[in-house]
Write a structure and sequence with these properties.
The chain is 0% helix and 49% strand. The protein has 115 residues and is mainly beta. The chain has a 6-stranded mixed sheet, with no helix packed on it. The chain starts with a strand and ends with a strand.
Length: 115
């Protein structure tokens, strides 16, 4: 199983930006798609963005136009550029290979948007 390590989270003011990284322990060249997810306290984990091996991207409506997902297969890394952050973006962010069924989750990285 590919192990994933997320980083880049932190405390940011509303309107600010963060760039999250997700490094895989093994090659992701054969992966069909990867996604970023988030989970706020007392809420279910939700899908934020998907990038396919062919470079197609999909975003949740809540982040469309503000977040950008990208993949660097040479570095086995998936990124999530987050701009114009809002307090409702506060959550722990995770990445994973899609589909996620049966796959382990990493520790995630906490994003807190607050003034």
């Amino acid at each position: 199983q590919v192990q994933l390590v997320e980083s880049g989270g932190g405390l940011v003011q509303p309107g600010g930006s963060l760039r999250l990284s997700c490094v895989a322990s093994a090659s992701i060249f054969s992966v069909n798609a990867m996604g970023w997810f988030r989970q706020a306290p007392v809420k279910q984990r939700e899908l934020v963005a998907i990038v396919t091996s062919g470079g197609l991207v999909t975003y949740a409506d809540a982040v469309k136009g503000r977040f950008t997902i990208s993949i660097d297969k040479d570095k086995n890394t998936v990124y999530l550029q987050m701009n114009s952050l809002k307090p409702e973006d506060t959550a722990a962010y995770y990445c994973n290979v899609l589909p996620t069924t049966g796959r382990p989750w990493g520790q995630g990285t906490q994003v807190t948007v607050s003034s």
